[in-house]
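Q: Could you fold this chain for me?
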Amino acid sequence: MAKQPKSLNGRVVAITGGARGIGKATAAALVRQGARVAIGDIDAELARRTAGELGENVRAYELDVTSRPSFKTFLDAVESDLGPLDVLVNNAGIMPVGPFAEESDASAVRQIDINIHGVIFGMKEALSRMLPRRSGHIVNLASVAGKGGFPHLATYCATKHAVVGISEALHAEHENDGVEFTCVMPALVDTELTSGVKAGRGIEKAKPEDVADAIVDALRVPRFDVFVPRSVGRINKFMTMLPRGGREAIARALQADKLMVQADKAGRAAYEERVAHSEPTPLETADEEDRTPVG
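A: Sure. Below is the predicted structure, expressed as structure tokens.
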């Protein structure tokens, strides 16, 4: 018998990196389902503007995912304002592109802190709330880069392999505890993160809304593996059955080995500069009575 889809109406959902891109699209999709959404972002002012665009069921909070105390403060504020946390979407992440040997240590550390520690801290804080209630759903944004290796994307691939691995482990660890886990693995998505990167043969860039809709579907009818587009999942399944030589030949045929090597550096310059120097930007404007809550 097919599972009855769950209603998301009134559910409390927290999204990291929710001010732009996939996070913003996911917030919008959840609002349409009647959810109450909290977006946490290192750029609190942008988060406030995004919340204002999305309506009264969205609130904005400052969040530095690399700090567990900041994550705790964020979720404490969310639960105080909106009620017990039902869903955490670990969306925040960065993707610098370039040769591994030329990558600065600071860039590698920043990727590990945001892409891995941010997910770990978020899950620990969410589970401390969900497990006693035996209810909740954690969605981790990984990538198809968590299933393979792409030149000029080595450290990013390492971080996304980590997200896939820890999601798998916790899915097994808590299978009888009432908490669901979903690992989302998009291919290229048309956001600032992939600026200057052209899609390979046979695979177009997905839209942020495509990922958002897939997340909503996985929350309504829980499942662990979510590939966007779905065809990528079929390709991945086929590739895992091949020997290394076969996998590498197909990757070359699809130009997957060239995607990041041929990235337009000028087209990525603004993004690379922003993520290299991103720091918390607390709200300093708006009257207190008009200010969206910031944790």
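A (continued): The two ends are 43 Å apart (CA to CA).
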